[in-house]
Amino acid sequence: MSPLDDSSGIVRIGPNAITRIAEALNAARGSADDVFAAAGLGHYLVDPPETMVDERDVTALQRALRAKLDVEAAAFIAHDAGLRTGDYLLAHRIPKPAQRILKLLPSGPASGMLLKAVGKHAWTFSGSGHFSYTIGRPVRVRIEDCPLCRGSQADAPVCDFYRGAFERLFTTLVNRRTQVTETQCQAMGADACIFEMRWS
Asked: Are 97 and 178 spatial neighbours (Cβ–Cβ below 8 Å)?
């Protein structure tokens, strides 16, 4: 399967990139209405998506989040939404036997197994972007043509949604002391967004 999952030519991303942002906004601010309205996506609050969504909607929502909130608030919301996405994946997408195996392995092999599995389904969150990774100290994930910051300019990394999701998965399955940092961001002019996972 690929992100081009229908005859329309629309590239699609999983609905967590929409629904978890709404949850995080509601939890922190009591409403998601203004951000979703600014993105032209108010219909998602009335009828939350349960299937893949147009990746352009995800890009628009991230832009609206940064436009309507200050930098720190937007980062907090996106990061929280990423954590919530990680929780969803752990509860519904990553088989419990696989989770038990990963937790028993040393951190290096566990990170390799986890990212190999993530890579097979990377199109569900990176859309038309290109996902790759390297295992080492640190572990690095690279997303080229990242849909979260596509067409944006910023003075600091802005892909906090991915940072939160990787943080939840790695601290739960690989090493509870994992710290995730976005070290490069296309919004800052880099050629790709790069996330580093480190643990002591």
From this structure: no
CA distance linking residue 91 with residue 162, whole number of Å: 18
Q: Taking the model in full, what pTM does it have?
A: 0.95
Running along the chain, 200 residues long, what does each successive block of 10 average in pLDDT? 61 98 98 98 98 98 98 98 98 97 98 97 96 97 98 97 98 98 98 97
Place of tokens 């002391």: 177
Gap between the Cα atoms of 117 and 26, Å rounded:
31
Residue carrying structure tokens 């690989």: 174
- Structure token pair of residue 180: 């995730």
CA pair distance 108, 137, nearest whole angstrom: 8
DSSP codes, 174-198: T-TT-EEEEEE-GGGT-SSEEEEEE
